[in-house]
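Protein 1 of 2
SEQ + STRUCT:
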Amino acid sequence: MPASGTRIALIDSGLGMLPTAGWLRHLRPDAHLDLLMDPAGMPWGGRPGEWIVERVLGAARLAVARGADVVVVPCNTASVTALVPLRAELEPARPVVGTVPAVKPAAASGEPFGIWATEGTSASAYQADLVALFATPGQATAVPCPGLADAVEAAEPGAVAAAVAFGASRTPGDVHGIVLGCTHYPLVSDAIAAALPNVRLYDSSRAVAGQALRRLGLDPAPDAEPAGVSVLLSGDEGDLPTTARSYPVGAALAGAGPVGCDLLPPPVRDDALADAGASVPRL
């Protein structure tokens, strides 16, 4: 099915949307992407819930006014906080797809795994509920990674290296996998993999992109002719920030060309992909 004229909106405060946007661009380059970032309001993580809801709803209303056919929220904080009111306003007329960390496929491996996430997410009932739902007792270890998301957002290699080294030092030696529990972390998956050799990384950005396409009734078509990519910064038309373009996937999106697999975080194998748009609770 052609995606000509299809618009996919992604809403996040900053660069955490890039991995999911990259997968969407790779899988269906003929779908127009609207990237709605919020530099005036970032970071969302420490904001009150009501504030986040209003910010996400405002961005979604703008996306709908621009013709969005589906709204994707590639942000754990926004998904947990705003997805229910967002769906109440937009569905069933317009699908909404949220984000869930890839705890389910990591748990399905049967091996011990860690969950790298922000300090707030690591201590949250949300993450604890995911672990209780999918993992066996003692299988998962929360690994707070203070400063890593901020370092990725700022595209500061030294700060990224220090935060990754700190996370690696707190990761148990017996883990076989790491769930990337913040959507910023896949942008530095190479650094994380180098710090934890022989440990498999689990990231949900490919699954979120796939869920968005399924909600639209679209199959992957990586060879399709590319459509456009638009950027809105706190509601105003603009360009991808320089920090975004410092990452290969961000540079590719800024050029509005195709995005190759080599620029993207490796997906969990297809047979283990959780429906990241539907897992807990139907995110």
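Protein 2 of 2
SEQ + STRUCT:
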Amino acid sequence: MMNSSITPMIVPAVLWTLIAFSVVTWAVLLIKGLQFARNRTENKRFRKAFWEARSLEEGESVAEQRPGTMASIARAGFAVITGSDISPDNRELAQRINRSDRLERSLRQQIQRERRSLEGGLAILASIGSTSPFIGLFGTVWGIMEALVTIGETGEAGLDTVAGPIGHALIATGVGIAVAVPAVLVYNYFTRRLKLNVSLMDDFAHDFYSLAQQNEFHVRSSVDTGHAAHGNPAPRHQPMGA
């Protein structure tokens, strides 16, 4: 026989759990929406300022002053180019690693770090979307069991006796589905946005690597150094993105 002290608490507990899941879903939607929107704006402003820079030095200054995922990738790349990514204790050993290989690895690692930051909270949405229908179904099954036990104890099997408790129990399944659908939709939306952001970060990392390769993995180009050595002003550069 079912525990009479626990049984009346099961269905309400299931409903409150589902309501809490719904609140979490909409909170994640708001937080992640603001995060992706802010990151999009920051990256757009950074790309414009970075590719208008006339040298890698100026590009480094832009990266240091700007927020956003792409600025973080650029800072990681400049750390390799300037050698600041190597601690003094490991400098002799790390210098044996080709700088281009270090740069490629550093850019890849930074992309993964930024990806983990952007996908934070999506696992919660996936869990809510996949478990809510089953939690609601559990509440329904328990409610039906309670109704059947009551019918067996009282001996009354009329429609008015059966329909009320079972109809009340079915509410849990409906609420579970209502909670799961938005969670799945929000998860799919932000997963698509995440893939788009990772693709853009990959494109920027490839462009940054090519730019560093053209400058022989040095912040100051040989042209500027030669002009400075002869006391002549450096020629006016076109923007790096030109």
